[in-house]
């Protein structure tokens, strides 16, 4: 399947194989996403699940979950954490993005007292996550 074009509102893409035999699968669309704040997590975390990816041959779906983690010492680090599930139901791909840009307050080490004095809003964090995913998508497309 070659359905990972940016015009399809792709959130993330998987490539299987190389060269002419390479298969590309959309792991989710940016529109139908769910956002979950992880209460009490230290460091601060938000989980975003993108659904609507390429169907499997068995009729299942592909989705991706991105966990955005506050790391005041990290400019940007993206990792692939693996996949779970079944091709008959749902294959869930997991990624983690660690960045200081995700932190609500620069001096916040324990998010038990999230205040609105300074820092980034949830919308800003989601925009950062979107552009990080877009950068990974473009970089993977050029590789």
Walk me through the structure.
The structure is a single chain. The protein has one helix at residues 122-142, and strands at 10-16, 23-29, 33-37, 45-50, 61-70, 77-85, 90-99. By secondary structure, the protein is mostly beta strands. Strands 3-4-5-7-6 form a 5-stranded mixed beta sheet, with helices on one face. Strands 1-2 form a two-stranded antiparallel ribbon. The protein is globular, with a radius of gyration of 16 Å. Residues 106-117 have low confidence and may be disordered.
Short summary:
This protein is mainly beta and 143 residues long.
Q: How are the strands ordered across the major sheet?
A: 3-4-5-7-6
Q: Describe the largest sheet.
A: 5 strands, mixed
Oligomer: single chain
Radius of gyration: 16 Å
Number of strands: 7
The structural class is mainly beta
Summarize the helices and strands and which ones pair or pack.
Blueprint lengths: L9 E7 L6 E7 L3 E5 L7 E6 L10 E10 L6 E9 L4 E10 L22 H21 L1
Parallel strand pairs: 5-7
Antiparallel strand pairs: 1-2, 3-4, 4-5, 6-7
């Amino acid at each position: 399947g070659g359905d990972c074009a940016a015009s399809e509102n792709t959130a993330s893409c998987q490539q299987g194989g190389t060269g002419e035999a390479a298969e590309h699968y959309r792991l989710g669309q940016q529109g139908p996403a769910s956002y979950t704040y992880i209460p009490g997590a230290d460091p601060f975390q938000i989980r975003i699940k993108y659904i609507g990816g390429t169907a499997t041959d068995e009729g299942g779906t592909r989705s991706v979950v991105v966990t955005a983690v506050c790391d005041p010492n990290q400019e940007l680090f993206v990792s692939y954490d693996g996949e779970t599930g079944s091709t008959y139901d749902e294959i869930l791909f997991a990624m983690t993005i660690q960045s200081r840009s995700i932190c609500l307050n620069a001096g916040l080490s324990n998010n038990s007292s999230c205040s609105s004095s300074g820092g980034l809003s949830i919308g800003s964090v989601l925009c950062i996550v979107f552009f990080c995913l877009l950068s990974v998508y473009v970089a993977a497309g050029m590789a």
